[in-house]
């Protein structure tokens, strides 16, 4: 049967996160900065201490996700796998714009859906994220390192929350290296913890971007 427990992690901090600009596919090769590297090590130590049953570590193809997932895989003694479908949302024509525009400007595609002109909608991202998770092998505990926008859209799909609600509610926003744990009950997923940053207490205050 599909996984009954899953961990979702946002990648560690990058220079673009600090400068608060949208990067999209142009930032696929962006590395973690020194704070992000520390965050990755703290996530790894926390997950290793849980002694998970049959853990399997996945990351998006973006460098910052892989660099966050690598210490986790090493700490658990398992390989790192690239998972298609959990990469960051493509902001299209909004590449290079500040994060603040996400809250102060209308975010609509040409067809009126919630998303980026010339890029992806939140629903499209949620659907690909959901497909990626449902396509994983049975009998494992997946740990998936993804991205802020992708996690919000993916959680909306997994928890059957309207994507516009998830986008506007701050509880779905993941700071760098935040951790969400879900459990499957029947056909649905339920939150055990959402965007948790307690494992990063050594680095407080946490950059929320």
Assign a percent range to the helix content: 25-40%
SSE ordering: EHHEHEHHEHHEE
CATH topology: Rossmann fold
Which CATH class applies here?
Alpha Beta
Please describe the biggest sheet, giving its number of strands, its sense, and whether it closes into a barrel.
6 strands, mixed
State the fourth-level CATH superfamily.
Answer: Phosphoglycerate mutase-like
Unreliable segments of 5+ consecutive residues:
none
Separation of the first and last Cα atoms: 36 Å
| Strand percent estimate | 15-25%
Count of all domains? 1
**What is the tally of helical segments?**
7
Instruction: Output the structural class.
Output: alpha/beta
Radius of gyration: 16 Å
Protein name: Phosphoglycerate mutase
Keywords: Glycolysis, Isomerase
InterPro entries: His_Pase_superF_clade-1, His_PPase_superfam, PG/BPGM_mutase_AS, PGM_Phosphatase
Pfam family, one: His_Phos_1
Kindly list the characteristics that best describe this protein:
209 residues, alpha/beta, Rossmann fold, six-stranded mixed sheet, 7 helices
